[in-house]
Amino acid sequence: MSLTDSRTQTALERPRDTALPARGSRDDAEAPNGAIAAATLAAGIACAVFGVLVVLVELNEGLKPTLRESWVGGPLAAKGLAATAVWAVAWGLLHLAWRDRELPWRRISRATTLLVGFALVTTFPPVFQLAGH
Amino acid sequence: MNLLTDREFFLLLHLGLGIIFIHGFAGGIATLVDRTSLRLQGTPLQARIRAVSTSFMAFALWAAVVSGTWLVYPGYGEEPPDGAATTAYPRADLQANGDLAFWHDFGMEWKEHVAWLTPFLATAVAFAAIRHGRRVSRDTAIRRSLVRLFTVAAAASVVAAGLGAVINKVAPNQFLDL
To answer: Per-domain residue ranges for chain A?
Structure first.
């Protein structure tokens, strides 16, 4: 048997759950999906909040010069920092609530997709600029 | 002798993150999608490559939005003093030049906003890969969701990078020398 065949056979015979756990983590193949659900949904929430902030700032034209003067990086930095703060809080809370639970993944995935989709639409200039007109 | 001005250095740093991004995305997507390699499938090495690659991509995207927002954009968006020529003020120059205004009003506006979505998505994927690698390896539904988030993050980054390249070409760049 050639070296390649032997390697292939070894990999195929190896069970799928042999991935190494990170040090100090509760990583095992049967671990509940709550922590992953919390991370993905929090990312969706942060994206959606950022999208809402983009529209809100566009609706309040007077806000832009104020943010430009009072924040290093201007309105973009203010929106980014606010979304990051919401993300950190949402992730922390969801993680605490869900880390030991097995959740219906399809619902989590669908909710995350909807939130990210909303953010992609609201950060598209023709859409948020419409709010400003 | 100054080899680079601060602004040139910041722009190079911002652009250089693309190298980490590309490697992070390639390794991440190859190890998240099923059956990319029979040799690696389900092995500790696959999980390790997935964790390292997704972490690299998350790092590159955070560094890109932070450097873009706080180091590069302020120079681009600076307001010219009354009566001054706009050539050292890219945003003002684009907006003062008829058709070129599109590259700020659409191009830069899309770039700066869509880019900010990417680090949240990439970090979620990296977290799952690092802390719950075994569950990710076993669970096809979770892996599919992660592939979606990772791909959206990469696609949005490509949009942002592409628009940045075009704007860099269209707008005057004298501001980098200041």
So the answer is: 32-132
Interface predicted TM-score (ipTM) of this complex, two decimals: 0.91
What pLDDT, in 10s, does the model give residues B68-127?
999 999 889 888 888 888 888 999 999 998 889 999 999 999 999 999 999 999 999 999
**Residues of chain B with C-beta less than 8 angstroms from the C-beta of A83:** 116, 120
Distance from chain centroid for Cα A21? 22
Residues in B touching A106 (Cβ below 8 Å): 141
CA-based diameter of chain A, in Å?
74
Question: How far, in Å, CA of A36 to CA of B139, rounded?
Answer: 12
Q: Residue B65: closest CA among chain A residues belongs to which residue?
A: A80
- Rounded to the nearest 5 percent, the helix, strand and coil shares of chain B are 80, 0, 20
Chain A residues with CB inside 8 Å of B136's CB? 19, 36
Give the nearest chain B residue to A55 (CA atoms): B113
CA distance B56 to B29: 12
Quick check: A35 and B131 CB within 8 A? yes
The pLDDT averaged over each successive group of 10 residues in chain A (133 residues) is 43 44 57 96 98 94 80 88 98 97 96 98 95 75
Judge contact between A50 and B117, C-beta under 8 A. yes
**What six digits make up the tokens of B126?**
């990296």
This prediction has a pTM of 0.88
The CA distance from A49 to A87, in Å, is 9
